[in-house]
Amino acid sequence: MDSSALAFTYLFCALLVGGLIVRTVLASRQIRHVVRHRDRVPDPFAATIGLDAHRKAADYTVAKARFGMLESAIEAALLLGWTLLGGLHALNQWLLQWMEPGMWQQLALLGAFTLIGAVLTLPLGWWSTFRLEERFGFNKMSLSLWLGDLLKGAVVGALIGLPIAALVLWLMGAAGPTWWLWAWGAWMVFNLLLLVLYPTLIAPLFNKFEPLQDETLKTRVNDLMKRCGFAAKGLFVMDGSKRSAHANAYFTGFGAAKRVVFFDTLLKQLAPPEIDAVLAHELGHYKRRHILQRTVLMFALSLVGFAVLGWVSRQAWFYTGLGVVPSLDAPNDALALLLFLMVVPLFTYFLSPLIAQLSRRHEFEADAYACAHTDGNDLASALLKLYKDNASTLTPDPVFARFYYSHPPASERIARLQGAAA
Ligand SMILES: [Zn+2]
């Protein structure tokens, strides 16, 4: 192995171990902090949240943090198995014994890798749903529904994923040194297409969407949207309760396909003014151009990603440094793609505090928007109900929250809302 490959191996190991240490330290901090505050509801919430609910939230948070530690250890082991321990190289060589080098062999490699990864992590998914979520009363899925979802997800994933993978692989082989620019363009078009197809074709495969029936609520919501100058094609209720007791509301699609989706669980838990306030918060994300900013950021980051992939896919050290011997007489594009997708999260993990920070700023801005168009007290009481029903902890570790939380901790958020309303 030459010196650049060796240096890359060291960098890879350092990031792998470093990431695992940071994850473990943060999760342990979170567990310690939550356990320490388990027996007392923080003062601002003492009137609204009972001690039992507070304890349940603490236990749920601790269980999730523990599970997260196990998950990251298993994922790190799998990553090591695929790369330095030779898993990906062996899989590729095995397929080359059976198939001619070329497009089909490469697609088979992508497919086999995805399938093996899915099977190996299946027990984690099962445990998360039928042990963790079940224990706290959130899981509403039967085993057959869960298996049906998996099967449907695999078929939809293959129908969508294989054509775009084939296109990218073809560009890598045929479009010359600037293939990555073309591939990025194709990836962007594909993402925009998905944004249109997801709400109308894909999501209905998994859930039922029915137009909102409740006339009073419909009038309220339409009034609010008119006040905010927002046009949506429809208001829908989704049967989220089919799978989970967690509640949510979201916007989906863009342009003419834009729609508002309420989980049935949300409508059941909140009073009409609270539903207004939650919707106003979501409208705030739209009106303050957060969705646009996020999309532009995603486009820019993937351009950087494709440029880096374009460069590393031509470097021998990128393959040998990760335990793969590239073929001399067969295309290595699928190998490059897989290695890249495996390694990138090791780097981007350390960017998560920046992304989380941006997201929390957007949440505050959307809250401010909601306060300007509805009553801030309604949003505060809606959030409290959601925190309680989702068993979200009110006492997260400050460092953990800074690193990961896409939403500001409850205490900060509600204090600000009540300040704005007063
Ligand atoms: Zn938000």
How are the SSEs ordered, and which strands pair?
Blueprint: H1 3-36, H2 51-82, H3 87-98, H4 103-135, H5 143-174, H6 179-206, E1 209-211, H7 215-227, E2 234-238, E3 249-252, E4 259-263, H8 264-269, H9 272-287, H10 290-312, H11 316-320, H12 333-348, H13 352-373, H14 376-389, H15 398-404, H16 410-421
Parallel strand pairs: 2-4
Antiparallel strand pairs: 1-2, 3-4
Helix pairs in contact: 1-2, 1-15, 2-4, 3-4, 4-5, 4-12, 5-6, 6-10, 7-9, 9-13, 9-14, 13-16, 14-16
This protein binds zinc ion.
How confident is the prediction overall: mean pLDDT?
93
Query: What bound compounds does this protein have?
Result: zinc ion
Query: Please, what is the oligomeric state?
Result: single chain
**Judging from the principal axes of the Cα atoms, what is the shape?**
globular
Q: What is the spatial order of strands in the main beta sheet? A: 1-2-4-3
Secondary-structure content class: mainly alpha
Helix fraction, binned, reads over 70%
What radius of gyration results from the CA coordinates?
Answer: 24 Å
- Low-confidence spans: none
| SSE pattern, N- to C-terminal | HHHHHHEHEEEHHHHHHHHH
The overall strand count is 4
Q: How many helix segments? A: 16
Biggest sheet layout = 4 strands, mixed
The percentage of residues in β strands lies in: under 5%
Structure commentary:
The protein is mostly helical. The chain has 16 helices and four strands. It has helices at residues 3-36, 51-82, 87-98, 103-135, 143-174, 179-206, 215-227, 264-269, 272-287, 290-312, 316-320, 333-348, 352-373, 376-389, 398-404, 410-421, and strands spanning 209-211, 234-238, 249-252, 259-263. A four-stranded mixed sheet has the order 1-2-4-3, with helices on both faces. Helix 2 runs antiparallel to helix 4 (103-135) and helix 9 packs across helix 14 (376-389). It is globular. 27% of the residues are buried. The mean pLDDT is 93. It binds zinc ion (ZN).
